[in-house]
Amino acid sequence: MILPIVGYGRSVLRVPTKDIDNTYPELEKLIEDMFETMYRASGVGLAAPQVNLPISVLVIDADPFKENYPEGEGFKRAMINPEVLEIGGEPWAFEEGCLSLPGIHENVTRPANVKVRYYDEKFVQHEEELSGICARVFQHEYDHLQGKVFVDRISNIRKAFLKKKLSDISSNRVRPDYKMMR
Ligand code: NI
Questions:
Q1: Is 32 assigned a catalytic role?
Q2: Domains of the chain
Q3: CB 36 within 8 Å of CB 68
Q4: What is the Å distance from ligand 1's center to 163 Cα?
Q5: What region does 105 belong to: left with phi over 0, alpha with psi -120 to 50, or beta?
Q6: Digit-coded pLDDT (tens) for 40-68
């Protein structure tokens, strides 16, 4: 089922999420719906606050960036209650976008490497070291769970330049080709 995506300006995007446990109702269905919603909107990641749920769940499928992976393999994950164990490496800039901010693409500088711990959709715990695009997409989605969006990480000058676009999104004046929450 395709879920409507919450746009910039809504408070659910600004609230740190709550961890869940394996009694969370219909978690597998939610994760399936989040993947479907993300694919429909041609995104590479989606966090639960973007579908109006203040819980620590995110999905990633960075397939469109496949040629940039360190090992050239796919990176598809559902992550529940992710934690950052270590973060570091040479910061680098990359142009990011976000399904909650249609039409906005800005360079964001982030550390190169991140070590994470999370549960998968079966509630099996994993630890994983991410780098390159995988670390990039994870950090963007993890920010959503902290109540942050990527334009919080750009300069004030760039943000001032985007003021009109941001206010258009906040007041529902933007119509991307996927369903936004009204
Ligand atoms: Ni995003």
A1: no
A2: 11-170 (3.90.45.10)
A3: no
A4: 18
A5: beta
A6: 999 999 999 999 999 999 999 988 777 66
Predicted structure pTM score = 0.95
| Ligand 1 mean position, distance from CA 101 (Å) | 8
pLDDT in tens, 7-30: 999 999 999 999 999 999 999 999
The active-site residue, picked from 71, 95, 129, 141, is 141
**Distance from Cα 8 to the centre of ligand 1, integer Å:** 10
In angstroms, what is the C-alpha Rg of the chain?
Answer: 16
φ/ψ of 100, rounded to 5, equals -85, -5
Strands 125-131, 113-119: parallel, antiparallel or unpaired by DSSP? antiparallel
Which residues are within 8 A (CB) of 142 and not within 5 positions of it... i.e. 6 or more apart? 47, 58, 82, 84, 116
Count other Cβ atoms within 10 Å, centred on residue 89.
14
- The mean pLDDT of 74-94, rounded to a whole number, is 96
Residue 49: closest CA among 172, 145, 181: 145
**CA 143 – ligand 1 centroid, Å:** 8
